[in-house]
Design goal:
Layout lengths: L1 H13 L4 H8 L3 H8 L7 H11 L3 H11 E2 L2 E2 L2 H7 L5
Antiparallel strand pairs: 1-2
C-alpha cells in the first residue's frame, strides 16, 4: 500500500495538483487521498480509475510507478524513482 501511495503522490505532484484539488476532481475526500498517499488507506478499482482519469494518466502508469518504489527491503526513496523516470529532468 505504501508504494502505491508514493506513486500516487508522485503523479499528483507531477500534475501540479494539491491533495484537495485531486480529491475534488475524482470525488474523494482530501483526507482519504492523504491516507492513500501515506499507505494508510486502500483504494478500490473504481477509485483507481477515477484518480488516474483526474491525473490524466493510464492506470498502467501508476502501477509501473508503484513497481519502481518496490525492492527487496520494501519501498524505495523518492530519489531512486526520479533516477528511473525517463521524463525527469
Amino acid at each position: 500500500m505504501r508504494a502505491f501511495g508514493l506513486a500516487l503522490k508522485y503523479h499528483r505532484q507531477a500534475s501540479g495538483l494539491s491533495q484537495e484539488a485531486l480529491a475534488e476532481l475524482c470525488g474523494l475526500h482530501r483526507t482519504y487521498v492523504g491516507g492513500i498517499e501515506r499507505g494508510e488507506r486502500n483504494l478500490g478499482l473504481l477509485n483507481i480509475f477515477a484518480v488516474c482519469d483526474a491525473l490524466t494518466i493510464a492506470p498502467e502508469a501508476i502501477f509501473r510507478t508503484t513497481s519502481l518504489f518496490l525492492n527487496d527491503e520494501g519501498v524505495r526513496p523518492d530519489e531512486l524513482l526520479r533516477k528511473n523516470d525517463p521524463n525527469a529532468s
